[in-house]
Structure formats: C-alpha cells, structure tokens
C-alpha cells in the first residue's frame, strides 16, 4: 500500500505577489500573472492540495495521518510558499480562545523560514518599543504605523516563530516557507492605502486587530542544537518543523505512529526513499508520508523542511 505522495499545491494570486515561484516550475500552464502563495500541504476547503489528481482528504483518511489523541477538530497544519514582490499588509492573528469565541474557527500561530530574499530585504515583526493601543490606533489612521514596527533584515535560512497576537508583515523581496495552523483567519491592521483592481481600498479590521494584538517588542524563539544535525525551525502545540541540510550524505527520519510527515525541498534536488518507494523532490516540491510508515531516507544535495505535529 502506498505510503508517500507528492503533493500538487494550490496557487494564489494577490496584488503583492511575485514571480519567483514560476522559476520553481509552479503555475506554468495556469495563465497566472503572479504567484503570491503556493499552498503545499493544505486541507482547507476550496483550497485543498492534491495527490495523484485527487484531493488529499479523499485520498488519505485522516486516521492515516495523525492520531486523535490531541483532539484537533480538523487537520491542524497548513504549509505554503509566499513570494512578496511588494510588502504584505500589516496584520495580526487571534488566539484559538478568541477566535473560537468570536469567529467560530481556530486562530493562527505560524512560523517563517526564509528561502530567498533580495539584498536588504526584511520582515516586520512586533514593535520597536511598547506602545499603548490608542497610540497604535492613531498611527494606523495617520499612516505612520510603519515607523513603529521593528524591521529585521533577513538572509536565506533565517527562521522566525510568530505566536498569535504578534503584529507582522512580510517585506517586499522575500520568499518564505510558512508553517502555520490550518486557519485563514487574519485581521488586517494596515495596508498602505493600496487599492484593488476596482479602485477600492482593501478592508481593514482595526478594532479586532487592536483587541488581539500584543503591543510590545518581538522576541524570536530559540531552540537547542539537535544531536542528529537537524535544526529546529518551529515547535509548538500545533506543529514541529526541522531543517535538514544534505551534501551527498543521507538523513534518516522516523515517521512516528502518531503523526504524518511532510517534506518540502527548499533548495537543491533530493530523493525520499521509504521501503520500496522512491520519490524525487525538486526545489519547491512537497511530499506527504502517512503516519507510522517507518524510516524515511532523504538523499541528495540541498535543504528540506520536515513538518509533523510531534
């Protein structure tokens, strides 16, 4: 029985989207002018990834992906590439507690891994000091909010953990791989007064954003070194992500009895071998492995991000 699947992502356009993902072979036959996001591992209704031409929820039962011991109401993780030709909106995501009470859906904690970036490009994360919410409201209305945000220049391989409540924006010229809770709930705080194709300013959610945001300085998560040479890039109740760098040597990853394993190549050309199955992964491609599948071997030259829930 097949245990490993190559995923076909769902591609999204947006006014800030770029062209880097075309270079990874995405969207060649879809007539898109840009690709803002490529949803790799997605069970979101209407935006579900496929394998073998079939939506993954219909191809692989949930029971074969993770155990119910943690009580997730739905598949817990969404991974995607995001290519920012222009700045994304300044936004914030609510916690589960707030979102379930007020929106009837889960909130969002997420993490970013920088795949590529222009020189001097960066990310906006939190504030440069602690502010009152009244000060933040006034800065949004006046258009001065950018001056209050902390801008962090980045390089490929940098990673950032972004808990719910963190004000953030991806800066122009950055390509990231995002690991997040499987939720589409976003409160847009500020959008540079940009207009859509019909000349309308995009909707803001100022009151809700102010209610849930943390008006303070951002501090990134730090993780201890790992004995197997991998590097942890995100770890929380919702997902666990590690980076593996291969230079002709193999990496062996145990696929636990309680969680799926997704593997996304963020650089190079790699091969995933599991039992008698072998699957090549080029940069930008993602594989999904059923839980309890044993030992997966990764070989080749490049970098891969492994995501599970434990």
Helices and strands in order:
Layout: E1 4-6, E2 10-12, E3 37-41, E4 50-51, E5 54-55, H1 56-59, E6 77-84, E7 90-92, H2 96-102, E8 110-117, E9 122-127, H3 133-142, E10 149-153, E11 159-162, E12 168-170, E13 174-181, E14 187-190, H4 206-212, E15 231-235, E16 240-247, E17 251-255, E18 261-274, E19 277-282, E20 286-289, E21 294-308
Antiparallel strand pairs: 1-20, 2-3, 3-6, 4-5, 6-13, 7-14, 8-11, 8-13, 9-10, 9-12, 15-16, 16-21, 17-21, 18-19, 18-20, 18-21
CATH topology of the largest domain: Jelly Rolls
How would you classify the helix and strand content by structural class? mainly beta
| SSE pattern, N- to C-terminal | EEEEEHEEHEEHEEEEEHEEEEEEE
Distance between the terminal alpha carbons, to the nearest Å?
A: 24 Å
Q: Biggest sheet, open or closed, and with what strands and sense?
A: 8 strands, antiparallel
Helix content: under 10%
CATH architecture name of the largest domain: Sandwich
Tally of domains: 2
Low-pLDDT runs of 5+ residues are none
Oligomer: single chain
CATH level-four homologous superfamily name of the largest domain: Jelly Rolls
* Number of DSSP E strands: 21
CATH top level of the largest domain? Mainly Beta
Q: Radius of gyration, rounded?
A: 19 Å
Shape: globular
- The number of distinct helices, counting runs of at least 4 residues, comes to 4
Q: Give the overall average pLDDT.
A: 95
Instruction: Work out the strand percent.
Output: 35-45%
